[in-house]
Write a sequence for this structure.
């Protein structure tokens, strides 16, 4: 994992323990295995062969060996139907775990602006100016979950998408289509301007077409209101 330091697997103990078990009980028994500090051997296993060996090890060996703490095999432990997954206390905390896409936003007077959409909820009125964390499902942008100081605050709804299921991909696709349409309009207008400049005399009007008010404007007189001495 990227959040752990090499050589100090504090945040990845479970997956490292799995790799160690596979390494000690399976890989060391396969041909071509070369432990650290030994000369590299020529690899002889293919991916399908390794996959089949791992499948046989898990089903026929690992699941059939008794655990030192429980005294039961993993298969017997599972078949007792006593395993209950640890669930969050509420659906809001479940959203906090499942909705991994998180963005920081500041609450405005008219709600939260996110992905060029406006999300509102009555509870947001008391948090204007505060920084909140927004979590959302990219497959459904009709509502977002708002968290304040790692606590669930509310579900903000976009009135434009209320009652509909609109994904983030649909929004991006619509924006790109709008950009293409605007670019096409701009290109058409540019072509019209270029055609107008190609007309003889359109780009360089003659002197007779100059507005008459410019030619008949009187020249300003240099008058001064300063008093002069008699000797000037």
């Amino acid at each position: 994992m990227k959040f752990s330091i090499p050589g100090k697997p504090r945040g990845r103990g479970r997956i490292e323990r799995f790799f160690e078990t596979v390494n000690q009980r399976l890989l060391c028994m396969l041909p071509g295995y070369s432990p650290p500090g030994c000369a590299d051997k020529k690899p002889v296993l293919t991916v399908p062969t390794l996959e089949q060996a791992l499948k046989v090890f898990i089903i026929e060996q690992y699941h059939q060996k008794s655990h030192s703490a429980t005294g039961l095999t993993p298969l017997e432990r599972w078949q007792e139907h006593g395993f209950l997954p640890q669930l969050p206390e509420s659906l809001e905390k479940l959203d906090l775990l499942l909705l991994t896409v998180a963005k920081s936003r500041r609450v405005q007077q008219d709600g939260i602006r996110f992905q060029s959409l406006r999300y509102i909820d009555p509870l947001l009125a008391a948090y204007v100016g505060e920084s909140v964390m927004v979590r959302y499902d990219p497959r459904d942008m009709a509502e977002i979950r708002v968290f304040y100081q790692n606590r669930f605050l509310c579900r903000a709804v976009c009135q434009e998408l209320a009652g509909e299921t609109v994904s983030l991909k649909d929004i991006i696709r619509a924006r790109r289509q709008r950009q293409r349409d605007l670019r096409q309009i701009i290109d058409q207008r540019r072509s019209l301007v270029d055609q107008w400049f190609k007309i003889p005399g359109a780009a360089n009007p003659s002197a007779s077409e100059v507005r008459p008010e410019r030619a008949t404007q009187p020249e300003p007189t240099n008058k001064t209101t300063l008093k002069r001495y008699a000797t000037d």
Summary: Strands lie at 102-106, 112-114, 117-120, 131-137, 140-148, 151-158. The chain has a mean pLDDT of 76. Residues 168-198 form the longest helix (31 residues). The CA atoms of residues 51 and 76 lie 24 Å apart.
